[in-house]
Amino acid sequence: MGRIDKKFCSDQCRISYNNKLNSDATNLVRNINNALRKNRRILMELNTTGKTKTTREKLLAKGFDFQYFTSLYTTKEGGVYHYCYEQGYLQTDKDWFLLVVRQEKN
C-alpha cells in the first residue's frame, strides 16, 4: 500500500533501518561524551575551591582519561591548560597538576 516508489514496507521498517545505519556514529559520540562528562566530574570533585593541586595518581585512580578534553589554552609562557568544559588542568611537574575553573567574562 502507499506510493509506488516507497522504499520501506512500514514506518517500523524505516525507523529500524535508520537506527541501524546511525548506531555506530551514535555509539562513538555517546562514548566520547560520557568520557568528557566523567573527566569533568572528577575535576569538579577534586577542585572544590576553584584552584588546587593534585597528582596524576589521584586522577587516574578516579578513572580520569587524559585523552579526552574539550579545549586547550596556551599561556604567554607556553603552559598548556586542558579543559573539560569549564574545568581545567595544567601539568606543572611530571606527576603534579594544577586544577582550575575557567571564569566567564562579562
Major beta sheet, strand line-up: 1-5-4-3-2
What profile does the largest beta sheet have?
5 strands, antiparallel
The secondary structure category is alpha+beta
Q: Bin the helical content.
A: 25-40%
SS elements, strand count: 5
Spatial gap, N to C terminus: 59 Å
Rounded radius of gyration (Å): 21 Å
Give a topology summary:
Blueprint: H1 11-46, E1 51-55, H2 56-61, E2 71-74, E3 80-84, E4 87-91, E5 96-101
Antiparallel strand pairs: 1-5, 2-3, 3-4, 4-5
Quick tags:
alpha+beta; single chain; elongated
How would you describe the overall organization of this protein?
With 106 residues, this protein is of the alpha+beta class. It has helices at 11-46, 56-61; strands spanning 51-55, 71-74, 80-84, 87-91, 96-101. The protein has one domain. It has 2 helices and 5 strands. A hairpin with a 5-residue loop joins strand 2 (71-74) and strand 3. The radius of gyration is 21 Å and the shape is elongated.
Short description:
Helices cover 40% and strands 24% of the residues.
